[in-house]
Specification:
It is a single chain. The chain has 171 residues and is an all-beta fold. The N and C termini lie far apart (40 Å).
């Protein structure tokens, strides 16, 4: 299913696009005052600017296939103060939302949040064990329970140019 308006504004509403949906805005898309757009295994194409302002939220959730969420913005993506973009990877296979942007402006107080939105605990490369931390560009944190020592997760990926989802620590 597709929806292709010339331009769009989402304010004070929660708009959800699910599996296989394409929202193709030929000009600009504004997510404004208390507006929220959630893409779950869906795609967004914006021919102009994508603007988040006045406490807007934009959430992407990968549905399992590689690049199952694709966000393409031909103009500028602007994340204003008090606005948040959430990027969730698939918790078991690590497929991640992909953003293809001409330009990104992140205002003071705006944020892109992928914290704890990668693999679930004990999954993926470099996961920890028995409460230890997951690795990535360096080894994960170790833990000592009584007389048992549990090493942290192994190193993988790039510490200088991270591109893979984070891993969950051990349980």
């Amino acid at each position: 299913t597709n929806f292709a308006p010339a331009s769009a504004t989402i304010t004070g509403k929660w708009w959800i696009a699910q599996s296989g949906f394409l929202l193709a805005v030929s000009n600009g898309l504004t997510i404004g005052t208390a507006g929220r757009l959630d893409l779950s295994n869906a795609m967004l194409s914006v021919g102009g600017d994508l603007i988040l302002t006045n406490s807007a939220t934009f959430t992407t959730q990968s549905g399992g296939a590689t690049n199952s969420v694709l966000v393409g913005v031909a103009g500028q993506m602007y994340v204003g103060a008090g606005c948040t973009v959430y990027a969730y990877c698939h918790s078991t296979n690590g497929s991640a939302p992909m953003f293809v942007l001409r330009d990104l402006t992140l205002a003071t107080g705006g944020k892109i949040d992928a914290d704890a939105k990668g693999y679930a605990s004990n999954l993926g490369l470099g996961h920890g064990t028995s409460g230890s931390g997951a690795g990535y560009g360096g080894p994960g944190g170790q833990v000592l329970y009584s007389v048992n020592h549990y090493a942290g997760g192994g190193t993988y990926g790039s510490s200088n140019a991270p591109g893979d989802p984070g891993r969950g620590g051990g349980k």
